[in-house]
Structure formats: C-alpha cells, structure tokens
Amino acid sequence: MADGAYPTLQRMLFSVAYRMLGSVAEAEDIVQEAFVRFYALDADRVRDIESVPAYLTAVVTRLSIDYLRSARARREQYVGTWLPEPLVTEHSVVDGARYVEQLDSLSIAFLVVLERLSPLERAVFLLHDIFDYSYPEISRMIGKSATYCRQLAVRARRHVQASGRRRTKISQNEQERLARRFFAAVGDGDVAALVDLLVMDAAAYGDGGGQAPAARIPICGRDRVAAFLASLGRTARRLGVRYRVTEINRQPGALFFNRSGQLLSVAILDIGENGVGAVYSIVNPDKLQHLGPVGDVRELLRKGVPS
C-alpha cells in the first residue's frame, strides 16, 4: 500500500467504524487495529489480497461486530437515553469523496436508529446501502452467504423505514440561519421565540449517562420542549455559559463552554422545512473528551456561580 493512500483509507475506514459504533474513540481504535493487522501480514499474504480497501473494510467490520456484541449488555443498562458521540464536521473531512453525498448517514437520528439493529444487520445495511458494496462482497467480508446478507439488509431497511417519517430538506444556509435564531432564543430564555421555531411534535433528547444532569426520558411536544429549553437557557446565562454555533454530524449544532473554556455540552438540531423537529443534547463527559477539555456540569450547578 502506497504511503499516500493511508490518509484516504483511514478516513474511509473511520467512516465505516463510526457509523457502526457511534463512538469516535472506539472507531479510531478499531481502525488503528485494522492497520496493525494489515502491516503484520507477510509479503506473500499481501500479494494475494485483491483489494486492500475491501480487505481493511472487512477487518474493521468484523472488529466492529465483535465490539457491538460485547457492548450490547452495557448499552442496555445505560442510564437514560443513549446518543452517539458527537462529531464536529465543520472544518473536517469525515468521509472519502465517494461518501460525501451520504450526509444523512451521519445524522444523530440515523445513528440512533442503527442502534436498534443487530450487529450483523447494521453491518450489512451500511456496507450495501451506504458504502455500495455488493452482497457477494459483503458475504466474503462477514462470512455469511449472499442470500442471508440480502435478508439481513431487507430486515434492516424495514426497521429504518419504520423509525419515523423523514423531514423535508431545506438548504444549508437556511438551516444555519434557523439554528442561530434557535440558539439565541435558548440563550435569551425566550419561550415564545422557541415555540415559533419548533414543530408541533418536537422532542428533546438528553444523554448524561448518569454522569451529568440530563432528562432521562425524551421531552415531547412543542410547548414542553420550548419551556424546558428556555429554562436551561436562563440557567446557563446566569452561570456564564457561552456557546458557539457549528456543524455537528453534518447538522446544525452548538458547543457550550464554561468561562474557563471547558466544554460542557453539545447540542444538535434536526431541522426541516417546518422548523426544528428534534434537539439532541449530549452532556456525558465520556462522550465529549475527544473534543477537548471537559468541564463539570454538576460542580457548576452546585456552586451556582460562573466558572
């Protein structure tokens, strides 16, 4: 493998692993392990590999399946709502050029739906529907027949399609404009402005993982979501919390910091033509560490003064 191919391959493999796992740290570890295994092969074995990208994708997929199987019990016991680790995509190249058009497959809502699939269903669905591998290719990657892989993909699609309606797309500029208005309304504690921006069946999801304060069940309905977020916004302003609007998982979002510049939480918006349909808030510090220094939300609330 030529040295110049490594960065492109690394990005492509990370895009597979991250969608499989919903974890930045675990995806990076699995990609690294795949390269370690590849470079450990003897020269004759390397010459027998028809496609290095396909070989490495197979290794990453199998490692991801193994990880998901071992992690299932832990995720079933997770405190509150489980959300994937956020990926700031504003200034980064997450995917190879072949996958840039598959932006929806990075959205928080899509990754949450994938969590409901079995590891094999998730692998086959992603490899076929997102990364364009054929069933015979997937069959060789995961060690199952092509017919069985086709059946897994059909089951996975049914789960994905049954997960809820898709919101009509609006332009990126319009999404950014609405996001800035939305986060300004949150910061101002402006219930009326939030009601105006939210759709009727809006929902707010929080992931604290039992380590930071967050709503353990979704908050549903425009008025309840608006009141909840306005209350959070007033508290955050009183404590000196600042935010920066950015792109997260190819969606409008914001990073929230204390006065010391430590990250407290990440919020991502699901926006359609009628307004904001969902708000995803990740406060679990374990899921924010890859983004920089993380602050202690509980300590900030306990002190009740800006930090």
UniProtKB/TrEMBL annotation:
Which BP terms in the Gene Ontology apply to this protein? DNA-templated transcription initiation
Q: Which residues form a coiled coil?
A: none
Q: Where's the RNA polymerase sigma-70 region domain?
A: 8-72
GO MF annotations, alphabetized: DNA binding; sigma factor activity
User: According to the UniProt entry, where is the signal peptide?
Assistant: none
Name any one Pfam family assigned in the record: Sigma70_r2
**Does the keyword Transcription feature in the UniProt annotation?**
yes
The reply to whether Calcium figures as a keyword in the UniProt entry is: no
Domain (RNA polymerase sigma factor 70 region 4 type): give its ranges.
110-159
- Cited SUPFAM superfamilies: NTF2-like, Sigma2 domain of RNA polymerase sigma factors, Sigma3 and sigma4 domains of RNA polymerase sigma factors
Q: Which domain of life is it from?
A: Bacteria
Which keywords appear in this protein's UniProt record, sorted alphabetically?
Sigma factor, Transcription, Transcription regulation
> Assembly and interactions?
Interacts transiently with the RNA polymerase catalytic core formed by RpoA, RpoB, RpoC and RpoZ (2 alpha, 1 beta, 1 beta' and 1 omega subunit) to form the RNA polymerase holoenzyme that can initiate transcription.
Record's family? Belongs to the sigma-70 factor family. ECF subfamily.
Q: List the protein's name.
A: RNA polymerase, sigma-24 subunit, RpoE
